[in-house]
């Protein structure tokens, strides 16, 4: 299965997402809704969850291919 978007498009979408996350994090601090530790912890938690999802996504197709070749 091929990606449906060009690498340049995916890069721009990812960059826009990072900027949006930064703006929201800054606004939470600026408006006084959260402490710096709250925002930092939420960003670290999001990065950890993203890493887990990417790892499982990379592992599953390899495990599935191995299962199919054994059959």
Automatic annotation (TrEMBL):
Source organism superkingdom: Bacteria
Pfam families membership: PAP2 (PF01569)
Claim: Transferase is one of the keywords in the record: no
Listed transmembrane segments: 12-33, 39-59
Organism: Kocuria marina subsp. indica
The protein's name: Phosphatase PAP2 family protein
Residue ranges occupied by any Phosphatidic acid phosphatase type 2/haloperoxidase domain in the UniProt entry: 10-56
Alphabetically ordered keywords of this record: Membrane, Transmembrane, Transmembrane helix
Entry annotated with the keyword Nucleotidyltransferase: no
UniProt xrefs under InterPro entries: PAP2/HPO, PAP2/HPO_sf
């Amino acid at each position: 299965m091929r990606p449906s978007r060009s690498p340049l498009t995916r890069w721009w979408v990812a960059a826009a997402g990072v900027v949006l996350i930064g703006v929201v994090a800054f606004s939470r601090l600026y408006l006084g809704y959260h402490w710096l530790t709250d925002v930092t912890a939420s960003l670290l938690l999001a990065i950890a969850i993203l890493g887990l999802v990417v790892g499982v996504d990379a592992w599953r197709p390899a495990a599935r291919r191995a299962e199919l070749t054994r059959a």
